[in-house]
Amino acid sequence: MNTLDLANYGPVIPVIVINRVEDAVPMAAALLEGGIRVLEITLRTSCALAGMEAIAKALPEAIMGSGTVRNLKDAQASKDAGCQFAVSPGYTSELGQAARKMGLPLLPGVSTGSEIMMANADDYYFLKLFPAVAVGGINLLKGFSGPFGDVKFCPTGGVTVESAPQFLSLPNVVVCGGTWLTPADAVARGDWAHITKLAKEASAIKAA
How far, in Å, are 14, 110, 195, 207 from residue 186 at the CA level? Predict the structure, then answer.
């Protein structure tokens, strides 16, 4: 799989934090019901890998990836848990080359021109702008479009259901990452219907 193919499944990739393993499958099922197939599960909690394994077994139709992949150990653990791709918050050549060697498609995180050039040097041209809004958001992406006209982006970090259409209207943005699809309070109370509703709204987002 080419990570750029992820954009074919809808305008938003949810960025998910799993705090309880038992929430993983119903949360993922709620997103799938709302039309979201690509899921990014972050490695930010001790139960993240167990949650990934549960989703991989119960919902093989989901296209599951891991987020917050920072090193080779994270990448290998993600692949072993059943992930089909990985997302990193930054980029190192060591991680990029290791992920390719193990056959784990990587969406590298960048926030500067130098990081984009480092990723390009390893033949990565679909990148995550992170943390998107904090580092300049739409204006930065417009600025990058000149010198990096052959690079496509997935802005993640501070993107909302309201701002996503503006990001998606940029020619170098093909999909957005969003944390708003799985609000912690809804997950805590098991309000899966609300998450399905948010997923349906996200699936319907069009470029402004």
Answer: 15, 30, 7, 27
Q: What is the mean pLDDT of residues 123-142?
A: 98
CA distance 103 to 80: 12
Residue type, 66: S
**Amino acid found at 30:** A
**At 96, which helix (H) or strand (E)?**
helix 93-101
List the structure tokens of 86: 């990985």
pLDDT digits (tens, 9 = 90+) for 31-90: 999 999 999 999 999 999 999 999 999 999 999 999 999 999 999 999 999 999 999 999
Residue 200 and residue 208: Cα distance in Å, rounded? 18
**What gap in Å lies between CA 84 and CA 104, rounded to an integer?**
7
The two three-digit tokens of residue 116, written as one number: 């984009």
Query: Per-residue pLDDT averaged across 99-121, rounded?
Result: 98
Where in the sequence numbering do the catalytic residues fall? 40, 128
Residue the block writes with tokens 């580092």 = 135
Are 116 and 129 a contacting pair, CB within 8 Å? Answer: no
Following CA atoms 52, 57, 60, 64 in sequence, which dihedral angle do they give, to the nearest 10 degrees? 10
C-alpha–C-alpha distance, residues 105 and 126, integer Å? 11
**The token pair that represents 23 in the structure block:** 């929430």
